[in-house]
Amino acid sequence: MAETHSLQDLRQQAAIASKVFVQRDYTSGTICKFQTKFPSELETRIDKQQFEETIQTLNNLYAEAEKLGGKSYLEGCLACLTAYTIFLCMETHYEKVLKKIAKYIQEQNEKVYAPLGLLLTDPIERGLRVVEISIYEDRSIGSR
Amino acid sequence: MKNCEYQQIDPRALTSPTATPTSTLPLANKNVQRQRRKWEVFPGRNRFFCDGRIIVARQSGVLPLTLGLILITSGLFFIFDCPFLVANLTVFIPVIAGVLFVFVVFSLLHTSFTDPGILPRALPEEAADIEKQIDNSGSSSYRPPPRTKEILINDQVVKLKYCFTCKMFRPPRTSHCSLCDNCVERFDHHCPWVGNCVGKRNYRFFYTFIVSLSFLTSFIFGCVITHLTLRAQGGNGILSAVQQSPASIVELVVCFFSIWSILGLSGFHTYLVASNLTTNEDIKGSWSSKRGAEDYKNPYSYNNIFTNCCVVLCGPMPPSLIDRRGFLPADEIPPVITTEQELPPFMAKNDTNMEDTCQDFALSCTG
Predict the structure, then answer these.
(1) What does the alpha-carbon distance between residue A40 and residue A42 come to, in Å, rounded to a whole number?
(2) Sign (positive/negative) of CA torsion A42, A47, A49, A53?
(3) Which residues of B carry out catalysis?
(4) Which residues form a coiled coil (chain B) (predicted)?
(5) How close B6 comes to chain A (CA, Å)?
(6) Which end of chain A is least crowded, N or C, by CB within 10 Å?
(7) What are the phi and psi torsion angles at A135 (to 5°)?
(8) Spatial contact of B199 and B116, defined as CB atoms under 8 Å apart
(9) What is the pTM of this model?
């Protein structure tokens, strides 16, 4: 832990060598889901399983946000009955899950990715189009 | 056609963005010290109010007319017809009209002022990555490969098109609105009456608006007819009734002409909701089974009218993907590709690929 990058150090000192973009997977329709295919550029940096686990957890969280069920229908009907004024004061279920996702990404960055010289960008900052992974230059420490 | 050219901005070069035409506040770009919000440098053709909280299309269309007609007709109804009807029938008439009026106005304002599901444009690095993938997979012949990607959704082949303005492959059901110059998710149509695109995030507001407006116009129409009939029976015939309440004729005329179109539109959109289609798909006949011998089926439909209605109207509310009120990083120039330059298509550009230029122009003119 002492010799590896911390999230703070990474952002301030290291330079970005390249970026990898994990695209959306539309085979199940328009729901938010990312491809779990392991990008070749990350082969030397991270475990394939670790990466797939991260993406799969993200996909599950987005599925939870967009889940069609009793709760979401209730929220929708209530909103309709109040002429959509509750959207002005209440946080929607989707927004609550987005906060969870942001926390998960922060935690993954701190624990897993930053020590390996990588950084995940929250997909919401890229319009839910891609998961952007920044690969930082490996200057100070020896390679894995 | 409209302005559809772009100039790639090198994020390392020190080109400060020109005064954005999208900003309506006069001091937005003068003070360089103040931290700017992202809406101030938004590349699409939109206008923002209340410091980015409200978004409308650049051309407000006939929104003032729509609002004016609704307010005036309802106002005349409450002032001139309701007193008579309350006295002779029931007090519930203005109550029902009031509830419908509130629904109509709120849903109209929500439709007009909500982000319809605009997709932010691809940042330069992302765009470069996509270009690399296209070049790798395309043929090496002189003619550039067609920028489409075919994917399988629920066993149905769907073609994704590349958007030259936004520099990305459009997700399924997304379309680029040439009036607003934005890609909009689940694009339905650009409605001039509400002055905004109708897309994924505001379709339910739009539907509520037209349905409640149908009820309101029918209700006012019925009540005004009842009012004039009662007056005519009680007094000296229909002419004197009209003389006593001339405002009613105005309401009758407005409602009569509105009812046909609004009721028709409500019916059409009810059909779209029940089959989980968009106006765009219906007009293009994307999933019509009459095209060719192949069996085109809508891959997004749940094949159940009730489920489709629930999903479209009561599904989870997706968030706005354009972070309007976020702050721009202090020293960074916003790394987006803008289309604000009003250049004629063949002027000198930084883009070295001439074919790209011609293709851009041709494709962006067709939206």
Answers:
(1) 5
(2) negative
(3) 191
(4) none
(5) 20
(6) N
(7) -105, 120
(8) yes
(9) 0.80
